[in-house]
């Protein structure tokens, strides 16, 4: 290889290097926002799993403590509901832990995606409550008109109050999440406008 070939190769390499995109610096305000979101998301996920394990353990021990012919069905119901809730908790957070690239736009897109997933969590909670209500109501009606010696729901008035209480809590929770995510989205849009050159 002569000197001319070596120089031409170095020039070609230099040209390729200059064509590489310049890495943008992510503004501190956007980084702070996304990292605060991540800390809150980790805390919420940890509390969800601890609460799910505690509720599941309590439900299973309560079922096993009672000698009833439908214990197996209750265990299947509780375990399937736990699996559904925990599975959604994992799937809904997939792709939310890091941006696709180290750029201001990628961080803002990640923060906005987290807000959309938070709203999707509210939709799932309503669906989860509906699924449980339909299963328990259907099971109760089957026990009334079937060969079961006792109805599944012994106190319908108490069960109705519990259901109304859960629905009331869900309404309050849904309003809180929608308002909070709307405020956070507006704040992110202001950050986008402020650092539009970095995006």
List keywords for this structure.
single chain; 199 residues; mainly alpha; 5 helices; elongated; transmembrane helix; transmembrane; membrane
What does this molecule look like?
The protein has 199 residues and is mostly helical. Helix content is 79%, strand content 0%. The longest helix has 42 residues. The radius of gyration is 27 Å and the shape is elongated. It starts with a helix and ends in a 5-residue tail after the last helix. Keywords: Membrane, Transmembrane, Transmembrane helix.
Question: In short, what is this structure?
Answer:
The protein has 199 residues and is mostly helical. Helix content is 79%, strand content 0%. It has one domain.
Low-confidence runs (pLDDT<50, min 5 residues)?
A: none
Q: How much β-strand is present in the residues?
A: under 5%
Q: Quickly give the structural class.
A: mainly alpha
Which range best describes the helical content: under 10%, 10-25%, 25-40%, 40-55%, 55-70% or over 70%? over 70%
Number of helices: 5
Q: What is the number of beta strands?
A: 0
Biggest sheet descriptor? none
Radius of gyration: 27 Å
Task: Give the overall pLDDT as a whole number.
Answer: 84
How many domains?
Answer: 1
Overall spatial form: elongated
* Through-space gap between termini: 45 Å
Encode the helix/strand succession as letters. HHHHH
Keywords: Membrane, Transmembrane, Transmembrane helix
Transmembrane segments: 43-65, 71-91, 124-146, 158-178
């Amino acid at each position: 290889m002569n000197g001319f070939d070596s120089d031409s190769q170095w020039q070609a390499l230099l040209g390729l290097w200059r064509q590489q995109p310049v890495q943008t610096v992510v503004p501190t305000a956007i980084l702070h926002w996304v990292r605060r979101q991540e800390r809150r998301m980790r805390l919420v996920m940890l509390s969800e799993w601890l609460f799910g394990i505690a509720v599941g353990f309590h439900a299973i021990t309560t079922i096993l403590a009672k000698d009833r012919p439908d214990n197996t069905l209750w265990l299947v119901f509780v375990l399937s509901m736990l699996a559904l809730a925990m599975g959604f908790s994992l799937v809904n957070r997939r792709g939310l832990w890091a941006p696709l690239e180290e750029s201001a736009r990628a961080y803002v897109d990640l923060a906005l995606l987290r807000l959309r997933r938070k709203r999707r969590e509210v939709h799932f909670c309503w669906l989860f409550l509906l699924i449980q209500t339909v299963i328990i109501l259907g099971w109760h009606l089957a026990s009334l008109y079937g060969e079961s010696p006792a109805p599944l729901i012994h106190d319908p008035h108490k069960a109705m109050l519990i259901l109304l209480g859960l629905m009331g809590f869900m309404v309050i929770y849904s309003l809180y999440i929608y308002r909070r995510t709307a405020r956070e989205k507006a704040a992110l849009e202001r950050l986008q406008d402020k650092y539009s050159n970095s995006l």
